[in-house]
Each structure stands twice: as structure tokens, then as C-alpha cells.
Design a protein that fits this description.
- The structure holds three protein chains of three kinds.
- By secondary structure, chain A is of the alpha+beta class.
- Chain A has five helices and ten strands.
- In chain A, strands 2, 4, 5, 6, 9 and 10 form a six-stranded antiparallel sheet that branches. Chain A has a four-stranded mixed sheet with strand order 3-1-8-7, with no helix packed on it.
- The longest helix of chain A has 29 residues.
- In chain B, a hairpin with a 5-residue loop joins strand 7 and strand 8.
- The two termini of chain B are 38 Å apart.
- By secondary structure, chain C is mostly helical.
- Chain C is built from 15 helices and two strands.
- In chain C, strands 1-2 form a two-stranded antiparallel sheet.
- In chain C, a hairpin with a 2-residue loop joins strand 1 and strand 2.
- In chain C, helix 3 packs antiparallel against helix 15.
- The longest helix of chain C is centred in the middle third of the chain and has 30 residues.
- The chains are: A alpha+beta, B alpha+beta, C mainly alpha.
- At the A-B interface, helix 1, helix 2, helix 4, helix 5 and strand 1 of A face strand 7, strand 8, helix 8, helix 9 and helix 11 of B.
Chain lengths: 282, 709, 337
């Protein structure tokens, strides 16, 4: 873009006022100055101790009991062996292959006990220690931009506002006690759900910890056994996926929804299968 | 070393252009720069312009809040007030501390499962210092600092929070533990929460320690650590999400913090000389997702509120949120860790009155000249393409007697900008009034005459400080011949916006909205952001003041086909759309916020809207027609369009420091200003850069956070 | 004695800091008093002292390493609680053991809580440190945890299955892992790392720490058989517990076939079944067969080796009170009060 400033035949241009050259024409985002300052600050530390000089005494000159000498020698051996063991186990950590079962049987009992304590102590401390020890630097490769999509924001208030004409203010003020339940079916066209909400669990709960007793038909002769729960990311609450086996008679099926560690069920899951003969093939 | 001053033509009167003019007219330069500001229409301010309408009521472009990290902007305004005071004009505008008042309350909304919505209210803790105070030289704009502080905060939040609905810590020891971390953790131990909150908090604390001390050599280890800790903490959070709807947003923020850590490590941002720019080709939500954030957290009102506030929707389409990861993170970090005094500051009156009137007055005193009713039509490059040879203008109107236009008028003792031009000062003012000229409409090209200014004769240097959307219209020759300018116009994105204001005879508490005057984000579309501005009412000139004044704003969707240049009715049509959706909005979603505004028949009580005095005597219209007495607008003018920052657009921004034209610099929040967001601070930073480009001052190191990662 | 006064000062500093982590702000019954019980019974604070002396020798301050010292002491006490439960010990520092006073479940709970608490001062101490220091400390800590776990497992395994086919190397291995690593090597390492700001190689103090720890352990075992079994311990308690000591291993090798049979039978019994007569007999046999003399010599040998390793590990460091304290430790273990 830029034309040489001293190009000939531009007397008029030379008379013009021009911008002066700048030291730099962009931001310096490296943070270099900050770190330089920080380093200067911490310069006042201990100097590197010198390498150990020759020992003060020569062990050859010692006069000691043979047995004791053997013990000391053994101690050195034992230490070398321990360090080597430690190095090996650190290596297996590093390769992700550490398993409590690789440890000799007699070590297991106590190690398991200590690990249990350690876990209570702080799982994170140990995980972090182990991760720190691992020397491998995983690839910094990231997918190129634009590979993954994230859905847009969901609406804050339903587009259809008809449902809120009465007592709308209360719905805003009250903390909802129930949890929305959305039911979807696999293999049963026309099936409908008669449950739309469940109680909220008392304690922290992952969706996978929510189960339902087999959904029994009214006569108790048929049942739907496969129901899975997922957190409903779009609307909040839960999504239940009901897998309906082929050949089930039409009718209403129901079962109590439980959460591990809580005696009172969260509610009932009630579904209705349409008239027979509408089974879906495949 | 020329004897005569360097004549600088500053085009535009928005934040960026005014900052450049402010810097170039500083006494330090000893009059070296002779600044003339050219402004279309009758008022300064650009997107921040405001006017006084009937009853002296304030009429804004939108909702303007100054964030507590706007250091460069506050510094300028504090200088301005000090200088006016020094010139004996201090009483005119008062102390800057009276012009801005702290605001720490924020509310976000999200859909409630049972219908309606939930509010999440936050009070940001006040911080030491004031915005614009000098910063310590070694104060770090440093990612390590941010991240470790983030984890420390997260840890504090976890330890403070009610756990599993039992309020463990606070119940156990309401205040005594205070900042005593050991005590808090021991409390957790006693309550048998070993494996839960305390452990997560401990992990957060440990992560903070690790991040604080990371070196390039230990980066790989830290990534491994962070990823495993993140996965593990996220699972913990996951398990709580279903049961603990009350603290859901906190979990979501924790989730986002973790993803940010993992992402900055993975992408090598910490020690990269380009800082956060290295991730600026990613969309911020996509990037967070890539680094482990849950879809849920990315849908959270927290994230939505940020997008709403920065209007980050391509084409104004709520289904197309888009904000680059680098700037998104930078904005978050500056917003949450950079504020001083208060999280937000709101202005005592209109932005025009509080910002542009004092600047105008002070610069007049300095000897700067202002040419109103001058609309730039072209920037003519010289033959060799390295400089600006001429500027051409439409002169929209001439001032009677060849005088300067006096733009301000008095409202309750303070100089203010009117919402309409003072036609009495204009030649042919009566004709202009009769024909209804709109000096601020891009589509209204009516004018008095044309004017050409030539380099060397009329000006020496140019600061082009108009809005980005106007560039193709004010500099068509350069855009046609310079591929970088064309790419900038094509790729740096803008959106239209819409706003309405209502004045109410009842206050918000009566209408059913509790608590202090929150700024509320992430609410229902289209007017997702609103704020009670009752505090500005005393500045207005009512016979009997309204009890509340509420401002709403949001993006405005673009039509499939852009309007033609001759479509003179376009702004009015869009404004009519805004009116319609504003009325619908009051009838619809506001029902959840202000149940008291609705009568027994379920209809909005239109009569609580306060009409201006005198205009509608004897009685203002009743029913829905009453809305016609309120204020609404569609910001569809190219120069009024709001700049957003979608991924990859950073490379198309041109810096004010760019040397392609040796007597031209750019200013605007759309330039490569160091802070790529449509906001006062980005604009002011670009204005400082433009001044530096022409004069060498201010030093780049003095532009706060210009070198921010 | 210079080392005694320095030890007192280190002990006092550690105890003061320890109080802030165990302070009973609002005492929870059945937990706080239990957690504070063992630390309150005194103790020499030798482990924290080793850490603090190393920190100073390597150029740091007492304050910089005080958190590490507290962590070391707390962890030591936490493991004592668990050890006492596993060993079925009845006395600790002259008073009934924690589980003897409060029952096993509460004691376990207190031990766990103490173990958890031990990491707080360590993390606090690491906060101002650089990545190098954090990484090295965590590395040393993880190594210690692993060695200690294995050491405990070895000893328990031997006792649970009544394994008597042991040699001296087995004993030394167990003692290294179970006692020396956590009691001597780890404290010295933490002091060296923190004191030097991460510059010192944590490996250079391992050998010194090991020999010191071995000498210390053998001396401890010997003292248990003496007239003065150490403050607040039962005489011959180790024999009653069937603990595999150097003396036991030696006497198994030196005994006649008949004696060996009697020892095996004794070890096969549970603690309650072992008669005091048998225990007395075994202790006398150890004296007769030279097992005690042998162990005493080995302890002295280990102390000598520690002195030698001291010279290697701390060569080139300027002479100081702290350095003399560390040097004196190798002789102090056998003459301690």
C-alpha cells in the first residue's frame, strides 16, 4: 500500500504534514513485561548449593563389625531396590497402567486401606499429584474453528404465553418444587405418557441414578423393563426414554420412579400403549 | 517544525472521535494541533448521543451503563471535569462522582420449569479504588493471575454456599469463620463432607496454586492436571445439578471456569505473544464446549446475559449468537476482575448530558472548533494512494449569520442536548421544519450545499471517527481501491438495535418487582435487557415527576434485503415495528416481571404510562394508544449500528496505528483497539491510539490494558 | 546441648502453628478433642525439627517451612492412631491409646480427620511457592505415601500370616518404608525443597534420612526390651504384639531347634494368648543369643553410615547451628533422653 516516501516528482506531497513513524503498530499481548517484573522480584532466593565435595572420611578406613557392615550394605541395597520400585511404579502411572492388582498380594490389603484413607483425605490431591508426575505432554492439537456447533439459547419465556394468563405473578415468585418430565418412546408409535412431572430428589443425584420399577400392565401380566433417564438440557428436568418391546398388549403401564438412597419415590411413570396391530417392524 | 499548527479534521462526534480530539487539544501539545470536529446533524455522541424531549425527559439510543473497568474512559472524564473546574466552570456539570453512581446489582432471568421464569440476582462486591485511578506499574493483566484468582473465587463460592440444601457452613458458623480457611475446611470435615464440597474446594484451591506458579516447562503437566481435575469436578457438579436447582448458576459458572482453564492451557494461550487472540478464530461457546463445558452451562442465563449485553447476535437473529472466544474471554476477565469501585456505574442523566456536553464545553474552551450539520460524503485519496487529498461534505444546513451552531440548551440549570435541532439557528429553518428533514437519517440526503476541503489548504490530517457501518458511505473511494478496507467493511460485523423507554406513575415495587433497581439481562426476547432508570428522573423537567423510568434495549433483526439508499421511509417503518413489539412485550413477557401492572381484566394498565406535560392537553390518549406518548427508536442508520465481534473478524480490523495513509488515522470501537467490543472503553482506547498515531501521545504504555493478553 | 535447645525451639514453633490448625473454635464432641489428643501428649517433634533444620540449612526460613513441619507432625499423629488400632496397642505416650479410650470407630474417624487436616498446612505452605517447588514437594509426598503404604502392608502381612522366614533385608526394607521414609526422608526432603526454593535435589538427603531412620527404628525396638521402654510404652510390648524386629529375626536364626519351635508357637498365638512367662523367656533368649548386642551394633553402624551420608549430602554448605544439629542427630538417636 505504502509508496516510498521519497519518490521523485512529488513536491506537493513533500510539503504535506505526515505522520511520524511509530515505535510499534500493535498491542504486545505476550505479558513479557509482567513476568520480567515478577522474576526480578523473586531473584532474592537461596543460591544453588555447591556439589558435594569429597567425603570427610574414607569408609575404607573404618573398622567395623563384619555383620554390621553387611547390614549397612543390605540397607543400601534395600534402598536402591525401593527407589527402583518407586521409579517403576511412577512409570506405570505415567503410562496410565497403574492398577491396584499389579501390586503384590501382601501389599494389597494395607495399600488398599491407605488408599481408602487417601481417597477420603483428598482424591484430588492424589489425582493431581499423579497427573503432575506424568511427564507426557499430550498433543496441543485442537480441532480447527467451526467444527462443533452449540445450539442457540433457548427462550426464557415460552413463546406461547396463553398458559400464563392467570396468576402469572405467582409462577415467577415461587421456586418450583417439581421437576419437568419428558417421556419419549422407542418402538411404540402412538404411545402416550400420562406423567409430566416428578418430585425433585432430596440429595444430589445424577440422572443415571434414577430408576423406575418395571412398568406393569394393570393385570400385572406384561411389563416394560427398559427405561433410561437423562437430564433434559433444553428445558431442565428429566427425559425418560421408554423402550417398548414388540408385541406388548395395549393398555396402561405404570411403575414408581426411584432414586438410590431415598425411600420415597419421585413419582409414578404412567404410559399408555395404543391398540395392538400397530407394532413397528424392525 | 512548522510554525503553524497542524490542522486536524476529526470526522464524527462519538466516543472515539471525541477522545482523539480531547487528546490532540490537550494543553501539553501547546496548541500544536488545530482540531475541527465535523458532525452530521445537531449533536455529538454517535451511538451514545442522547437528547432531551418534552418535559425535559431523557431520550437515549439505548441503555448505557459504564462498567467498572472502563479505566481509559473514566480517566478522560475525570480529566475533563478537573479541567472545567480549573477554568471556573466546575459548577456547570458538577463533580464526576456526582455524574456517575455505583451499581452492583445484577439480575438474570431463565426459564422456570413450571413455566414463567426464575430470577438470579447477584450483588457484586465493591472493590477498592475508583475507575480511572492510576494503576500500579506491576499490576498484572496476566492470565495466570486471572485463572488462579478465578479458582480462588470458585473455592470461596463453594465454601460459602449452602451445600445439599442444608446450609452447612453458614449454619455451623454463621460469621465466625470469616476468612479462616482452615476453620471452614474443618467445619466441612466435621459435617462429614469430606468427599464432597471440601474436596472440590480443595481441588480448586490447589488448581489456583498450580496455575499461579506454572512455567512454560510445566504447562503440559498442568494441562493433564487441569483436565483430570476438571473432569472430576464436573462430575461432582453434574451430580448436584438435578437436585440443586437453587445453585444451578453457580455450578454452571464453575463449569465455565474449568473449561476456560483447560482451554487456555490446551491452546497455549498463557505464554503466547498473541495472548487471547490465538483463540479468536473460535466462537466462544463452541470453544468452551470443545474444552469440556456442558451444553447446559452454555445455555445458562449467565452466558446469555453476556451475549445480550454485547448484542452478540449476527444479523440481530437470536438464533445466531456469535462472539469470538478471545475477545469473549478478555471481556469477561476485564469485567469481573478489572473493575474498581463498583461493578457498574450508571450515569446521573443522559449519556449526552453527562459525557458529551462536558467534553464539548471543555474543548470549546481549549479552542477546538465544531462544525455541525456536516455529513462526510467521501475521503479522496491522493494520486499515489498514500494519503488523503480531499474531504467532501454535504452541508445539511447553514447557520444564520455565518455563526457557529450553539447545540446545547438549558434543562434545570444544566447544558443539555435537545432531541431536535434548534431550527431557529438555521438558514431556512422554517422550510426544514415544514418538510420534516431528518438530519440523522442515512436515507434523508436533503442538504443545503456541498463542501470540499483540500489537504494542505484546509486540513493536514484526518481522524476518521464515524461508525463502521457508515464507512462505505463516507469513504467509497478508499473502500473501492483498498482491499483491506473492503475486507474490513465486509467482515467486521454490525447489528441494528432497538430501544424503548417508558415513564411510569407507579414505582416498580408497586408493579411487583422486588428489590433494588437491577439491570436485568437474559430476559425474554426481543427486549432481553432492561433497567429501572428512576434515578435520572430528577434531572428531567416534569411538573410532577414520574415514579419510575424504565429503559429496554436489544438487537433488531435485519430485513432479508437491505434497504435501498433512496428508501427515505425505512427508519420510520422500522421504528413502527419497534413500537409494535414494545407494546406486545408489555402485554406479554412483562406480565411475569410486573404482575401489578396488569388489571383485573388481565390487560396491561396503559394508563400508568406517564405522558409528557402539556403535549396532550387536556387529556393524553387512553388505552394502548397511550404508548404513543412514550419513546422508542430503531437504530438502523449505518453509523448507529452496533459493532459485534464474531470469530475470525479480528484479522479484518485495522489499527488506528496503521501507517497505510500518512495523514489519516481511524477511530472507533470497530478498529483494532485492543478491546474488540462495542463499548465506550473500546472506543476511547481507539481514540487514544488515533491521537498517538498523529502526535505520539499518549504513550502506548499509558493506555490501560492495551497490552492485555 | 545445642541440638536440644534447637530441637526445643523447633518444637515450640511447630506446636504453636499446629494449634491454629487444631484449635478448638467450637469443639465438636467426639472429634475435636480426639484429634487434638495425641499432639497434646507432647512428643519430641523430631520429624518437624528435621524439616525445619533442612529448610534453614538450604537457605530458607523457619516460617517458610513451618506449614510443612506441621503437616509432618499431624500426619505422623494420624498414622499413630491407625497404627495403635492395628497393633492393638494399649498405651501411647504414657496414657491409654485413643481407641482404648473412645472405641475403635471414633478413633478411626479422628485419625481420618487428622489425616485430612494434615494436608491443609502443607497446601498453605506451598501457596507462595513456585511450580518447581510445588511439583517437587508433591512428588516427594506421593513417593512417601507409596513407600509408607507398602511398609505398613509388609509388616501387617507378616503378622497376619505369621511369617517367620524373614531375613535382615526384609526387616530393613520394612523399616525403611514404614518408618524412615515418612519420619526422616520426607521431612528432610520437604525442608530441602522449600528451603532452597526448589533448587536443591530432593534426592541428596535420601540416604542420610534412611540411615538415620533405620538407626532410630532399631534403637526404638531395642529400647522396648529394656528396663526403660521409652516414655509411656509397655515393656516388651513389641514381643507381646509379635512385632518383627531385628532382634526377633536374629534370635530365630540363632536359636536351637527346640527354642525355635517354642518361638514359632508363641508367634502363632494371638496377643491375648501369649503368656507373660513366654514373653519374658523370649526376651532373655534374645540377650543370651547375642541378638540384642547384634542389633545394638547394627544401630550404631547405621548411625555411622548416617554420619557418612551426612557429609555427602550437606557437603559445601556453610557451617551453622542447624547443620550441627543435623550432624548430631546420628549420635543423638542412641543417646536420646
Amino acid at each position: 500500500m505504502t509508496t516510498p516516501k521519497d519518490a521523485p516528482g512529488k513536491a506537493a506531497a513533500r510539503a504535506r504534514v505526515r505522520r511520524k513513524p511509530l515505535v510499534r503498530t500493535g498491542a504486545d499481548r505476550s505479558g513479557a513485561s509482567v513476568r520480567a517484573a515478577a522474576q526480578a522480584k523473586s531473584q532474592a532466593g537461596a543460591a544453588e548449593p555447591a556439589a558435594p565435595a569429597m567425603p570427610l572420611r574414607n569408609p575404607e578406613e573404618w573398622k567395623i563389625d563384619e555383620a554390621v557392615a553387611a547390614s549397612v550394605k543390605t540397607a543400601y541395597d534395600v534402598l536402591a531396590e525401593s527407589i527402583e520400585q518407586g521409579r517403576r511404579s511412577a512409570e506405570s502411572f505415567r503410562h496410565g497402567g497403574y492398577n491396584i492388582r499389579d501390586v503384590p498380594v501382601d501389599v494389597r490389603h494395607m495399600a488398599a486401606n491407605l488408599l481408602r484413607l487417601a481417597r477420603q483425605l483428598s482424591e484430588s490431591t492424589f489425582e493431581i499429584c499423579e497427573a503432575l508426575l506424568s511427564q507426557q505432554v499430550p498433543g496441543f492439537q485442537s480441532p480447527p474453528p467451526g467444527q462443533q456447533g452449540v445450539p442457540p439459547f433457548r427462550p426464557t419465556v415460552e413463546k406461547d404465553l396463553a398458559g400464563f394468563t392467570s396468576g402469572a405473578g405467582q409462577s415467577a415468585a415461587k421456586e418450583p418444587s417439581g421437576m419437568r418430565l419428558t417421556v419419549q418412546f422407542v418402538g411404540a408409535p402412538g404411545a402416550v405418557a400420562h406423567s409430566a412431572s416428578l418430585s425433585r430428589p432430596h440429595a444430589p443425584t445424577a440422572a443415571r441414578d434414577i430408576t423406575v420399577a418395571p412398568l406393569q400392565s394393570r393385570d400385572g401380566k406384561a411389563a416394560i423393563k427398559v427405561v433410561t433417564f437423562d437430564a433434559d438440557l433444553a428445558g431442565g428436568g428429566l427425559v425418560a426414554t421408554v423402550t417398548v418391546p414388540a408385541g406388548l398388549p395395549a393398555g396402561v403401564y405404570s411403575g414408581a420412579v426411584h432414586v438410590s438412597g431415598q425411600a420415597v419415590p419421585l413419582g409414578m411413570l404412567v404410559v399408555e400403549l395404543p391398540q395392538a396391530g400397530q407394532k413397528q417392524g424392525g | 517544525m512548522s510554525e503553524r499548527p497542524i490542522r486536524v479534521a476529526v470526522i464524527g462526534g462519538g466516543c472515539a472521535a471525541m477522545t482523539a480530539a480531547w487528546e490532540l487539544t490537550k494543553p501539553e501539545h501547546g496548541g500544536k494541533f488545530d482540531v475541527t470536529v465535523f458532525q452530521e446533524g445537531w449533536r455529538l455522541g454517535g451511538k451514545g448521543a442522547s437528547g432531551r424531549g418534552p418535559s425535559g425527559r431523557i431520550e437515549e439510543h439505548g441503555l448505557h451503563i459504564w462498567l467498572g473497568f472502563y479505566d481509559n474512559a473514566f480517566r478522560m472524564m475525570r480529566e475533563c471535569h478537573a479541567e472545567l473546574d480549573g477554568r471556573g466552570l466546575g459548577a456547570l456539570y458538577g463533580d464526576w462522582r456526582d455524574a456517575w453512581t455505583p451499581k452492583n446489582d445484577v439480575a438474570l432471568c431463565s426459564a422456570a420449569e413450571g413455566g414463567g421464569f426464575q430470577r438470579w440476582m447477584v450483588r457484586m462486591p465493591p472493590r477498592a479504588g475508583l475507575p480511572g485511578d492510576p494503576r500500579a506499574a506491576d499490576e498484572p493483566f496476566d492470565l495466570q493471575y486471572y485463572l488462579s484468582t478465578g479458582f480462588d473465587m470458585m473455592r470461596a463460592v463453594l465454601l460459602d454456599m449452602q451445600v445439599d440444601g442444608h446450609g452447612v457452613v453458614s449454619e455451623f458458623d454463621p460469621r465466625g469463620a470469616g476468612s479462616d480457611l482452615g476453620g471452614r475446611l474443618l467445619a466441612m470435615v466435621r459435617m462429614g463432607l469430606f468427599a464432597s464440597a471440601a474436596t472440590v474446594a480443595e481441588a480448586a484451591g490447589l488448581l489456583a496454586v498450580l496455575v499461579r506458579s506454572v512455567t512454560p516447562a510445566s504447562l503440559g503437566n498442568l494441562l493433564v492436571t487441569a483436565e483430570s481435575a476438571a473432569a472430576w469436578m464436573r462430575q461432582w457438579i453434574e451430580d448436584r445439578w438435578i437436585a440443586d436447582s437453587k445453585h444451578r448458576y453457580l455450578w454452571e459458572i464453575a463449569d465455565l471456569t474449568l473449561a476456560s482453564l483447560v482451554g487456555t492451557l490446551r491452546h497455549g494461550v498463557l505464554f503466547n505473544p498473541r495472548g487471547l487472540e490465538v483463540i479468536d478464530d473460535y466462537e466462544v461457546r463452541t470453544w468452551l464446549r470443545m474444552n469440556g463445558a456442558s451444553i447446559r452451562a452454555l445455555q445458562s442465563p449467565f452466558v446469555r446475559g453476556l451475549f445480550d449485553l454485547s448484542m452478540g447476535y449476527v444479523g440481530g437473529d437470536p438464533d445466531k449468537p456469535s462472539l469470538s472466544a478471545g475477545q469473549g474471554l478478555r471481556g469477561l476477565l476485564r469485567t469481573f476482575f478489572g473493575y474498581r469501585g463498583a461493578f457498574m456505574w450508571r450515569m446521573r442523566a443522559g449519556m449526552g448530558d453527562v459525557v458529551f456536553a462536558p467534553l464539548y464545553t471543555a474543548m470549546l474552551e481549549r479552542g477546538a472548533k465544531f462544525r455541525f450539520f456536516h455529513r462526510l460524503t467521501d475521503v479522496v485519496p491522493g494520486e499515489d494512494g498514500d494519503h488523503v487529498a480531499a474531504l467532501t461534505f454535504d452541508v445539511q444546513a447553514r447557520i444564520k449569520g455565518g455563526k457557529d451552531y450553539a447545540p446545547l440548551f438549558d434543562v434545570k440549570g444544566r447544558p443539555c442536548w435537545p432531541s431536535q435541532p434548534d431550527l431557529d439557528q438555521l438558514v431556512g429553518g422554517r422550510k426544514i421544519a415544514a418538510e420534516g428533514w431528518n438530519f440523522e437519517s442515512h436515507w434523508d440526503r436533503r442538504r443545503d450545499s456541498e463542501l470540499t476541503l483540500r489537504v494542505g489548504e484546509d486540513f493536514d490530517m484526518v481522524v476518521l471517527g464515524v461508525g463502521l457501518g457508515a464507512i462505505p458511505h463516507v469513504a467509497p473511494k478508499i473502500v473501492a481501491r483498498d482491499p483491506r478496507w473492503r475486507a474490513m467493511c465486509d467482515n467486521v460485523t454490525t447489528v441494528a438495535s432497538q430501544a424503548f423507554q417508558i415513564w411510569l406513575d407507579e414505582d416498580l415495587a408497586e408493579l411487583g418487582w422486588p428489590g433494588p433497581a437491577y439491570i436485568t439481562g437474559a430476559f425474554a426476547k426481543p427486549f432481553d435487557t432492561w433497567c429501572d432508570m428512576a434515578h435520572v428522573v430528577p434531572e428531567e423537567d416534569w411538573r410532577s415527576p414520574p415514579r419510575a423510568s424504565v429503559y429496554f434495549c436489544s438487537v433488531l433483526r435485519d430485513p432479508p434485503q437491505p434497504p435501498g439508499d433512496g428508501d427515505i421511509d425505512y427508519p420510520a417503518r422500522r421504528a413502527e415495528e419497534v413500537r409494535e413489539s414494545a407494546e406486545q412485550f408489555l402485554l406479554g413477557p412483562m406480565k411475569h416481571l410486573w404482575p401489578g401492572a396488569f388489571g383485573a381484566d388481565g390487560d396491561f394498565r396503559w394508563d400508568i404510562l406517564k405522558a409528557p406535560d402539556g403535549e396532550h392537553d387536556p387529556e393524553p390518549p387512553s388505552g394502548r394508544a397511550r404508548f404513543g406518548t412514550q419513546y422508542w427508536r430503531a437504530n438502523v442508520n449505518p453509523s448507529d449500528r452496533y459493532v459485534i465481534h464474531p470469530p475470525g473478524s479480528w484479522r479484518y480490523r485495522i489499527s488506528p496505528l496503521d501507517m497505510s495513509y500518512d495523514n489519516l488515522t481511524l477511530a472507533g470501537d470497530w478498529t483494532d483497539s485492543g478491546f474488540h467490543s462495542g463499548c465506550v472503553e473500546g472506543a476511547v482506547m481507539s481514540g487514544l491510539l488515533a491521537a498517538h498515531a498523529l502526535s505520539g501521545l499518549p504513550l502506548l504504555e499509558e493506555i490501560i490494558a492495551y497490552d492485555h493478553p | 546441648m545445642a541440638e536440644a535447645t534447637l530441637l526445643d525451639r523447633y518444637g515450640a514453633a511447630t506446636r504453636a502453628e499446629l494449634g491454629s490448625y487444631l484449635g478448638n473454635r467450637t469443639a465438636v464432641p467426639f472429634l475435636d478433642p480426639l484429634m487434638a489428643e495425641y499432639p497434646s501428649r507432647g512428643g519430641k517433634m523430631l520429624r518437624p525439627a528435621i524439616c525445619l533444620a533442612n529448610a534453614q540449612v538450604f537457605g530458607g526460613s523457619v516460617e517458610s517451612a513451618l506449614g510443612c513441619a506441621v503437616a509432618i507432625e499431624l500426619l505422623h499423629n494420624a498414622l499413630l492412631i491407625h497404627d495403635d488400632i492395628q497393633d492393638g496397642s494399649e498405651l501411647r505416650r504414657g496414657r491409654p491409646t485413643l481407641h482404648a479410650m473412645h472405641g475403635v470407630p471414633l478413633a478411626i474417624n479422628a485419625g481420618d480427620a487428622l489425616l485430612f487436616t494434615a494436608f491443609l498446612p502443607l497446601l498453605d505452605a506451598l501457596k507462595p511457592c513456585g511450580a518447581d517447588v510445588v511439583q517437587k514437594v508433591l512428588e516427594a509426598t506421593l513417593a512417601m505415601a507409596r513407600q509408607t503404604a507398602e511398609g505398613q502392608a509388609l509388616e501387617l502381612g507378616w503378622r497376619d500370616r505369621n511369617i517367620t522366614e524373614l531375613c535382615e533385608a526384609d526387616y530393613l526394607r520394612m523399616a525403611l518404608k514404614k518408618t524412615a521414609w515418612m519420619g526422616m526422608i520426607w521431612p528432610a526432603q520437604l525442608g530441602a525443597i522449600v528451603g532452597s526454593g526448589g533448587r536443591a535435589d530432593a534426592g541428596r538427603v535420601i540416604r542420610f534420612g534412611m540411615f538415620l531412620g533405620l538407626a532410630f527404628q532399631i534403637e526404638d525396638d531395642l529400647r522396648n526390651l529394656s528396663d526403660d521402654p521409652g516414655y509411656g510404652k509397655e515393656r516388651n510390648g513389641d514381643l507381646a504384639e509379635g512385632k518383627r524386629t531385628l532382634m526377633l529375626i536374629h534370635v530365630l536364626g540363632a536359636a536351637s531347634a527346640g527354642e525355635r519351635k517354642r518361638i514359632d508357637a508363641l508367634l502363632a498365638q494371638t496377643r491375648v494368648e501369649r503368656s507373660s512367662d513366654d514373653i519374658l523367656w523370649l526376651s532373655q533368649l534374645m540377650a543370651q543369643r547375642g541378638s540384642i548386642d547384634h542389633a545394638r551394633k547394627v544401630a550404631a553402624g547405621m548411625a555411622g553410615a548416617a554420619a557418612y551420608e551426612f557429609a555427602l549430602a550437606y557437603a559445601g554448605l556453610p557451617q551453622s547451628e542447624e547443620l550441627i544439629f543435623l550432624q548430631g542427630l546420628s549420635t543423638w538417636v542412641s543417646n536420646r533422653p
